Amino acid sequence: MSAWLESLQKAINYIEENLLKDLSIVDIANEANSSAFNFQRTFGLLTEISVGEYIRRRRLTLAADELKRTDSKIIDLAFKYGYDTPEAFSKAFRRQHEVSPSDVRKNIGKIKSYNRLVIEVRLRGAEPMKYQIVEREGFQAIGIKKEFLLENNGNLIGIPKMWDELNGDGTTDKLAQINNGQIKGVLGICVAKPNEKIDYWVATDYTGDVKEGFELIELPASKWGVFEVHGPMPDAMTKVWKQIFSEWFPANGYQHAGTPEFEMYTEDDPFSPDCYSEIWVPLK
Questions:
Q1: Helix (H, G, I), strand (E, B) or coil at 141
Q2: Nearest residue to 222 (alpha-carbon basis) of 155, 264, 280
Q3: Which residues pair with 186 in a beta bridge?
Q4: How many alpha carbons lie under 13 Å from residue 260 in its C-beta half-sphere?
Q5: All structural domains of the chain with their residue ranges
Q6: Fewest Cβ atoms nearer than 10 Å: which of 66, 106, 182, 212?
Q7: Strand pairing partners for 276?
Q8: How many CB atoms lie under 10 A from the CB of residue 205?
């Protein structure tokens, strides 16, 4: 198993060993030597659920098992598995198991069990990935920046809205027109920050004085993995991101450098099967 997969398994083991404690995404990500953003994104791509949802499912699985095996009071189990009130516990329990805690105690209905995640190496890669390794000096981009909280998928909700707003008011068109750098198109740049936050930029590669209404971001010199994306948004982009983390990283000696990454969007119709875009991942 590659070091990258081993670090991911280490983080999962940490979750399991501390399921009954207050778990911080920062502490979990540290186990994988990753930023909170990169870990949450990688986990979500590989499992198709969020870290928080995995923790919730596992706790309610253990709670259901304890209900069936012991005489523990429902109120005690509610507090043990992280709920402030028996009512909140019962609501979450019914949402997962489609049966109430009291019914499980009476052996009425079936419970839905989610097992502990184990990372396995599987043969993949029948579908080719087109990429190149590029070394670039540091460069600057200008654009619009917004901060998003990772908690409750704030970034997943907010970033598409941000694109809709900037596409609607002509900002992305303006950015495409003033581009004068080596990387063409409009960039979606993600910068991980402490305290489960990210800065997200809609920007363009640009050299010169900052245009009015825009801010400047400096991207450091880096070795980049540049991956081609072909197909309509957002599915084509999501598919390649998943391939990068589930196939490419485990099969190569590289790791994510932890510095800003970005997606490059051309002027192609984003809904066309012929749409071309790129993913730029900093490597170490």
A1: strand
A2: 280
A3: 265
A4: 22
A5: 3-105, 131-283
A6: 212
A7: 230
A8: 22
- pLDDT per residue of the chain (284 residues) written in tens, 0 to 9: 567 778 889 999 999 999 999 999 999 999 998 888 889 888 888 888 899 999 999 999 999 999 999 999 999 999 999 999 999 999 999 999 999 999 999 988 899 999 998 876 555 555 789 999 999 999 999 999 999 998 877 888 899 999 999 999 999 999 999 999 999 999 999 999 988 899 999 999 999 999 999 999 999 999 999 999 999 999 999 999 999 988 888 888 788 999 999 999 999 999 999 999 999 999 99
Q: Which two tokens stand for residue 135?
A: 């070394």
- Nearest alpha-carbon partner for 130 in 239, 231, 264, 228: 228
Alpha helices by DSSP H, the chain = 3-17, 25-31, 36-47, 51-69, 74-80, 86-97, 101-105, 154-168, 171-178, 235-243, 249-251
The Cα 133–Cα 9 span in angstroms is 27
The answer to whether the beta carbons of residues 216 and 210 sit under 8 Å apart is yes
Peptide bond into 234 cis (omega under 30): yes
* Cβ–Cβ < 8 Å for 198, 155: yes
Q: 73: which 2 tokens? A: 């009071």
Q: Residue 58's Cα: distance from chain center in Å?
A: 20
CATH class of 131-283: alpha beta
Tokens, residue 58: 């596992």
User: Fold match between 3-105 and 131-283?
Assistant: no
